[in-house]
Amino acid sequence: VQLQASGGGLVQAGGSLRLSCAASGRTFSRDNMGWFRQAPGKEREFVASISWSGATTYYARSVKGRFTISRDNAKNTVYLQMNSLKPEDTAVYYCAASFSRVIDPPPGDVDYWGQGTLVTVSS
User: Fold this and answer.
1) Which residues, including other chains, have CB under 8 Å from residue 101's CB and lie 6 or more apart?
2) Which of 31, 111, 44 is nearest to 73 (CA)?
3) Model confidence pLDDT, tens digit, residues 41-68
4) CA–CA distance from 57 to each of 14, 39, 47 (Å)?
5) What does each C-alpha distance from 61 to 2, 25, 48, 67 come to in angstroms?
6) 80 neighbors 48 (Cβ within 8 angstroms)
7) 3-state secondary structure string, the chain?
């Protein structure tokens, strides 16, 4: 099983990026999926999650209104559209799959992790 994240990069404050995470090895169409991030010297933190059907989404307070999570079960892929980026959004972003609760899932509850993609927001 592999989760391949892509789409990270360097962007100026106020800019946008779209992250993608393509899963292979098994289907996650019946699993919650999401994104976490980890800044240097900090613990990994929750960013956004989406239920298996896409009907329910949840966001960390720090990104709500700026980030949008979506998924395409036919492509076994989850996305994170990030707008109005701020320097404090700088981190390695990890996609995550298969955890029990959509609302604020703890990192320890995640069964599968992607390799991470670096997002750097310059001021």
Assistant:
1) 32, 109
2) 31
3) 999 999 999 999 999 999 999 999 999 9
4) 23, 23, 11
5) 29, 33, 10, 10
6) yes
7) CEEEEECCEEEECCCCEEEEEEEECCCCCCCCEEEEEECCCCCCEEEEEECCCCCCEEECCCCECCEEEEEECCCCEEEEEECCCCHHHCEEEEEEECCCCCCCCCHHHCCEECCCEEEEEEC
Token digits of residue 36: 């976490």
Average pLDDT, consecutive stretches of 10 residues, N- to C-terminus, the chain (123 residues) = 95 98 94 97 97 96 98 97 98 96 93 96 96
Give the integer Cα–Cα distance in Å for 79 and 96: 11
Which position has the token pair 């492509």?
Answer: 75
